[in-house]
Design goal:
This protein has one domain: NAD(P)-binding Rossmann-like Domain (Rossmann fold, 3-Layer(aba) Sandwich). The chain has six helices and seven strands; from the N terminus they run H-H-E-H-E-E-E-E-H-E-H-E-H. The strands form two sheets. The protein has a five-stranded parallel sheet with strand order 2-1-5-6-7, with helices on both faces. Strands 3-4 form a two-stranded antiparallel ribbon. About 30% of the residues are buried.
Amino acid sequence: MDETEARHPEPAWRNPDDDAIRELLLSSRVIAVVGCSPKPERTSHQIAKFLIEHGYAVHPVHPAATEILGRKVYPRLADIPEPVDIVDVFRRAEHTPEVARQAVDIGARALWLQQGIVSEEAWRIAREAGMMCVMDRCIAVMHRLLIH
């Protein structure tokens, strides 16, 4: 190990490659947006709107709101009445391991932590359960880049 590697070790996690992310986005239909805000100026609200406009069935997850973007809001992932493909998370990193456990419990195919959110513990929980995990990436940006 050289001096640079010692100062900047490789993270224990790694995002899937673009082909795997493209396949996930193309094969998914239902996305739960955890931390979806009812406020239109918030990024989580805007991303949920983008996903709806691109044909996904979006289920906002928020502890207090009742409706966001014309969709019923669920207080917990376990309350969503259909199978979820992707759990898209807009929560601080320290809250994501619990979201990962809930995503595993509902049998989601993937855990997606939005840009700026990294949790090696959440990544490990998802991967050990056989789920795909994407971290520190915006799902809308990746959709624009990979889906033509």
